[in-house]
Specification:
Helices cover 95% and strands 0% of the residues. The protein is built from 1 helix and no strands. The longest helix has 59 residues. The radius of gyration is 26 Å and the shape is rod-shaped. It holds the Pfam family Flp_Fap. Keywords: Membrane, Transmembrane, Transmembrane helix. This is Pilus assembly protein Flp/PilA.
Amino acid sequence: MSAFNKLFAVLSSFQARAERRDEDGVTAIEYALMAAGVAVIVVAGLAILGPKVNGLFTGISL
């Protein structure tokens, strides 16, 4: 195996590792955005339905 082929093999392995790391970072960002979206929906739902649920339990306790 020539020196060029060895160098090419090493560079190819570094490139493959870099591509995997890039995909992991993108996936982590996508999951973080989805989690943030779910959190926004939960907070909005609680803000809208919170007083209604509170009124329901207040009416039941009377």
